[in-house]
Write a structure and sequence with these properties.
The complex is a heterodimer.
Chain A (H helix, E strand, L loop, with lengths): L1 E8 L9 E8 L4 E5 L6 H8 L9 E2 L7 E4 L11 H10 L20 H10 L9 H13 L5 E5 L7 H17 L3 E5 L11 E7 L2 E6 L1 H5 L7 H8 L2
Parallel strand pairs in A: 3-7, 3-8, 5-6, 6-7
Antiparallel strand pairs in A: 1-2, 1-4, 8-9
Helix pairs in contact in A: 2-4, 4-5
Chain B lengths: L1 H16 L1 H18 L10 H32 L2 H9 L3 H30 L3 H26 L9 H20 L2 H4 L3 H7 L1 H17 L8 H21 L10
Helix pairs in contact in B: 1-5, 2-3, 2-5, 3-5, 3-6, 3-7, 3-10, 5-6, 6-10, 6-11, 7-10, 9-10
């Protein structure tokens, strides 16, 4: 369990507090989803708990840096790099890697027929010819194979189609359910979490505005649209 | 070691993807060398004169490729690559070493092509030709090892990659002119000028190695000064390497 107590933070030369006496607890066995408007401090918070921004003592229960993996979206890779080479690169640069990549497309028992087909299709495809969703799925698949105690996914589903979003989140959910680890994820696509075992945390103006399940997030407004519920929360 | 080799492999694919960039490192000095010394095609140069001129271009290639270690790492920092893969690999050093070795490899390749081309055209004696290749490769290797490391200190500055590249390109012109005019050998404080001009440092190193290997007598700053400047470069680079941040302070990642 990771506990954050009275965490405040602002950038140098900034009058605004990005985090203002922020208090929260994150648990294993589910996805901890951090919500918030653009610029609400989600990435800053991730940077603090990963010690990218020097971590104050207000955060407890963090694993060592070598036990953390931090996924970012939209990285540049050479267009000629093939799917298998990208996959290999993620795994072989992992300091704890035990997996060997062969010419055969990667598969495991957690993957659905859709995912097996997807990996087979993009295994020999060049990075430049893959869709954003295919690129993202492949890199998230590789990251879920990296053995860590804390996983951070910074907007892993932004800009991709519903099917790819679904399989990416299901893969991350499997990770949270089957490994002894903590999973933190930020997102703006709220509908996706209806079918995912998760807890939502709404970060607003540096404070925790909401903490609870997807159903609880919707209940005050008695709405079925989480975007509307989000809108009401941040007003 | 396996992790470093994976980064080396990725950066090689990146470099091969950017063929125009690599060709530019090589074609520009090669064309400039031939234009500047076209008279040598008719009348072969004295070996000393040939070394004096070619060392300037070899220093240029070495310096421009050394700069790229830092500018590429800053670009990787700005697009989030360093942040993500520092956690995957457990350390930022594997990424830096991978880039450093990759750049050295392509530098040696560029200098080899440059020396083989110019040596074939302008040198008749096989012994001189082989000496020239050996001296140039050794000088660029030693020079780039220290200068690439030294330039990592720039990663401590709050500056964007595109701004740094522009500044360095302008500075390169000044450093090239200063080295071409042998300013360091004209003053009493030449060693300080060499310290401030890494391009001239590589050139002095070429002269030192040239004197050692071929027994010629090129003027350069003292061996002690060359070693001292190398140590200062290495020390500065190690400070840069140790303290540079994996996220940009000039651009959000």
């Amino acid at each position: 369990m990771i506990t954050v107590k009275d965490l405040s933070f602002s950038y140098k030369d900034s009058s605004r507090l990005n985090l203002d006496n922020f208090n929260v607890q994150f648990h294993g066995g589910l996805i901890n989803v951090i919500l918030g408007q653009n610029g609400s401090g989600k990435t800053t918070f991730f940077d603090i708990i990963t010690n990218v921004i020097p971590c104050p003592k207000n955060v407890e229960g963090l694993p060592k840096e070598k036990e953390i993996v931090y996924q970012l979206q939209g990285l540049y890779f050479p267009n000629t790099l093939k799917g298998k080479d990208l996959f290999r690169f993620f795994l072989y640069t992992n300091h704890k890697n035990t997996i060997t990549i062969t010419k055969k497309p990667y598969s495991d028992e957690l993957m659905s027929p859709f995912e097996l087909d997807l990996v087979e299709r993009i295994w020999n495809m060049e990075f430049g010819k893959m869709s954003v969703g295919e690129r993202r799925y492949l890199s998230i698949l590789a990251i879920t194979l990296i053995d860590r105690k804390l996983y951070i996914f910074d907007e892993p589903t932004s800009g991709i189609d519903p099917a790819a979003r679904y399989y990416i989140l299901k893969r991350i959910e499997q990770l949270a359910l089957t490994k002894k680890c903590t999973v933190l994820l930020s997102s703006h696509t709220l509908h996706d979490f209806e079918q995912i075992r998760c807890k939502l945390y709404l970060l607003h103006r540096g404070k925790l505005k909401f903490e609870g399940t997807y159903a609880e997030f919707l209940s005050p407004s008695e709405l079925s649209n989480p975007d509307h519920a989000f809108f009401l929360q941040v007003q | 070691m396996k992790i470093i080799s994976e980064y080396f492999r990725l950066f090689t694919v990146m470099m091969l993807n950017n063929k125009i960039g690599f060709v530019w490192y090589l074609i520009f000095p090669l064309v400039a060398f031939f234009v500047y010394n076209y008279s040598w095609i008719a009348t072969k140069p004295q070996i000393e004169t040939f070394y004096l001129n070619s060392s300037l271009f070899i220093s240029y290639i070495s310096f421009t490729m050394s700069i790229d270690v830092t500018t590429n790492l800053i670009a990787m920092r700005e697009n989030g690559f360093l942040k993500m893969f520092k956690f995957v690999s457990g350390s930022k050093y594997a990424i830096v070493i991978g880039k450093y070795l990759n750049q050295l490899f392509f530098l040696l390749l560029a200098v080899l092509i440059f020396t083989v081309t110019t040596g074939t055209v302008f040198l008749d004696n096989t012994h001189d030709f082989l000496n020239y290749i050996g001296i140039s490769l050794l000088a660029c290797l030693l020079g780039a090892l220290t200068v690439s490391l030294f330039l990592l200190i720039l990663m401590l500055l709050p500056i964007k990659q595109e701004s740094l590249t522009t500044i360095l390109n302008m500075l390169l012109f000044v450093l090239f002119i200063a080295s071409a005019n042998d300013l360091s050998s004209l003053t009493h404080y030449g060693a300080i000028l060499v310290l401030l001009n890494p391009l001239d440092y590589i050139r002095n190193l070429t002269f030192l190695i040239g004197n050692w290997i071929s027994g010629m007598n090129f003027t350069h700053i003292s061996t002690a000064n060359i070693i001292a400047i190398g140590c200062i470069y290495i020390l500065s680079g190690l400070i840069g390497l140790r303290y540079f941040k994996i996220v940009s302070v000039a651009a959000r990642t």
